Amino acid sequence: xxxxxxxxxxxxxxxxxxxxxxxxxxxxxxxxxxxxxxxxxxxxxxxxxxxxxxxxxxxxxxxxxxxxxxxxxxxxxxxxxxxxxxxxxxxxxxxxxxxxxxxxxxxxxxxxxxxxxxxxxxxxxxxxxxxxxxxxxxxxxxxxxxxxxxxxxxxxxxxxxxxxxxxxxxxxxxxxxxxxxxxxxxxxxxxxxxxxxxxxxxxxxxxxxxxxxxxxxxxxxxxxxxxxxxxxxxxxxxxxxxxxxxxxxxxxxxxxxxxxxxxxxxxxxxxxxxxxxxxxxxxxxxxxxxxxxxxxxxxxxxxxxxxxxxxxxxxxxxxxxxxxxxxxxxxxxxxxxxxxxxxxxxxxxxxxxxxxxxxxxxxxxxxxxxxxxxxxxxxxxxxxxxxxxxxxxxxxxxxxxxxxxxxxxxxxxxxxxxxxxxxxxxxxxxxxxxxxxxxxxxxxxxxxxxxxxxxxxxxxxxxxxxxxxxxxxxxxxxxxxxxxxxxxxxxxxxxxxxxxxxxxxxxxxxxxxxxxxxxxxxxxxxxxxxxxxxxxxxxxxxxxxxxxxxxxxxxxxxxxxxxxxxxxxxxxxxxxxxxxxxxxxxxxxxxx
Amino acid sequence: xxxxxxxxxxxxxxxxxxxxxxxxxxxxxxxxxxxxxxxxxxxxxxxxxxxxxxxxxxxxxxxxxxxxxxxxxxxxxxxxxxxxxxxxxxxxxxxxxxxxxxxxxxxxxxxxxxxxxxxxxxxxxxxxxxxxxxxxxxxxxxxxxxxxxxxxxxxxxxxxxxxxxxxxxxxxxxxxxxxxxxxxxxxxxxxxxxxxxxxxxxxxxxxxxxxxxxxxxxxxxxxxxxxxxxxxxxxxxxxxxxxxxxxxxxxxxxxxxxxxxxxxxxxxxxxxxxxxxxxxxxxxxxxxxxxxxxxxxxxxxxxxxxxxxxxxxxxxxxxxxxx
Lengths: 592, 323
Hints:
The complex is a heterodimer of chains A (592) and B (323).
Chain A: H1 5-18, E1 49-53, H2 69-78, E2 83-86, E3 89-95, E4 103-104, E5 110-114, H3 131-140, H4 151-155, E6 174-178, E7 181-185, H5 197-202, H6 214-221, E8 238-240, E9 251-252, E10 256-261, E11 278-282, H7 288-297, E12 301-303, H8 310-319, E13 324-337, H9 347-356, H10 359-364, E14 372-373, H11 407-416, E15 429-435, H12 438-453, E16 457-463, H13 465-473, E17 482-489, H14 496-503, H15 522-531, H16 537-554, E18 557-568, E19 573-574, E20 577-578, E21 583-584, E22 590-591
Parallel strand pairs in A: 1-11, 1-12, 15-16
Antiparallel strand pairs in A: 2-3, 4-5, 5-7, 6-7, 8-10, 9-10, 10-11, 13-17, 13-18, 14-18, 19-22, 20-21
Chain B: H1 2-29, H2 35-40, H3 46-56, H4 62-73, H5 94-129, H6 134-148, H7 151-162, H8 177-180, H9 184-190, H10 192-217, H11 221-228, H12 233-245, H13 247-261, H14 265-270, H15 276-286, H16 289-317
Helix pairs in contact in B: 1-16, 5-6, 5-10, 5-13, 6-10, 7-10, 10-12, 11-12, 13-16, 15-16
């Protein structure tokens, strides 16, 4: 596990942030965006059926496995996790299944959570939730029939927790002294005197903390591949429609997810208004134009896993502003240059590329100005450290200052790198691997043109998004020179979650590597590792802003957008965006 | 005849085995996404990836994986049962998902076949009989356009013109309507546009094909003889001309039906019809190998079975053929 002790300190700081002790999240700017008209959680009419149009399926229907924003969109309607980010302010976390904030011991080795009394499982289980259900939910994340993608990262420090465990394996580090108390006990790592209780407490917002009844789920988890997802029970206001035996007949893989009211949900134990009677997620809407027009011109519909394409977005901005919600995503996109491959091992070549690159052209592939700002540095708006890094103006670095590209400046940097004619003069062919579909494919093509404009010979190979990551860009041994379709989204509103996985040389791994530029500067790595230990918010902001400056100066990538998430709804939908994941919240949205 | 059918059935099994083997090799040798990494999420630990490999049996040698899959198709070989394996994406058995989607594909195919035969054959006959007339030129011109227009283009144009929610002339149920419909007639109404789009190119091909065959046939000696015997022109055309000219059409039709039953990917995708074609498309996009194998095998099954049926039908249509 790459998570370390430092995470506990960061998480403590984050927890303080999120539990409302400190409110230092940046202005997300969402309210000022044209067309942003999210409803407020307090307004809405009861009843109705909302249709959400998706292209594909959710990554996994099992709350213990899902690890995507859309999976979270569903579990935030169907489950009560221990804690939940506030729908209109993601920097604040509120208790959900928990009764109050978690108690974290001073050394971070013990986290105690008290549960609400009276929360019930949906049919066919129909009984009250106890602490043993929370314990089992987290234990099953480690089962080799479940294999949660993040259980090891956040709960792996609990004694007895082992990824790939046999179904039924207990974790002694989770204790349940009574029906309504869960205690997470950890031991300090060798040479340490503290435990990462902070990050564990922070992770209690994740779907894995939603209770699972062991006596019911055990048989589904016992096989080689768990089928609990297709037989799940709920504790939230909605549930996947099921039959008497509990089979989730409302989940038809790749076709439909039908959520209906959970008859056992008690609104007095929840802050979600849950106006709608049912939510129908209809999949297979591959054509984004058709999907968008159906939503904008139809009734009671919202988008799901795809945003409107650029032409529809422009049209919506002029004609249907009220039906469009642009939400800062807390992330950005860049064209990564592999700093271990010639000529990108020369910082002046990289600066020349950034200087001469037409980032406006890249942004146009996604819809232009409306879809996000052209960055001046790496930390995106809405994250701690953004203002300290110069805000929208950035650090004033010349090669980052011309969004449309400055060929004269690029020529100067090329000359510094030894290319006298002001363009790259090498004859080798550089491998660029990009996506082969939609706006990303167009962005890859534009990026290839930009490199060719600067004198490079590029061989663009376009593959599916999954293949691009798992076979090429995430694999250093694949020796891809340029990855034009990469980007990162925050985990929390902290710059560490943005910069550390993507530019810390200590995080370069043989597979699933997300430091695409393979930037490995010992001094920079040390700076980041030190910054992880800081707990004071101002100090963290300053430190990470300084790291941001250093990374920007090293020009490992052409950072071309801090993007917005574009969501659309039908005119009669009073939509509420869940600011934490940037999608409509089913449990807060209503029909007008 | 019985011996011939038995021989062909043995070939069917052999062909399906070869198709399965080729699909397996293609998706394991060509560069594509790693299913374990896709399933693991972002930044997974090596332990997690290893556990997922074990869970799906991806750590076994390829030969073991292949024969395990064969076991999932032929239960007595020793797999997890007759289920075509488990989807990496949904953790569900593949066969029930294919069977669940089969009615939509059958309905789409059946309607489209009826439509394109109803349009294509009369047009082909009229064109052949009236060769060189303005009617011949007009219909063959339209046929050329229909052949040239790809289904996804024609489908989108149809949606933007006639879809009852987004069309300029909102006349027909459009994208996603099949899924919403609950009755037989509702589903049939939802398929009117897909039927028209899918059958357009086929009708054009069949019309041109039949026209060419019929023109050749009408110049045969036995047609001249039939006319000399004083048979009416109608009888000559239908009884002697069309019956002979239509024989190759049966071959074509059998294979086309087989291909479409394996999934009309473009039509199902454009109109969001949850059939086998769409299922295959989703699986390819997500590199869900068990589903890809299942849908390819299913498609191959329909093609070889339809081919067998056509060959048997030949014996009845063409008296010269004996098995």
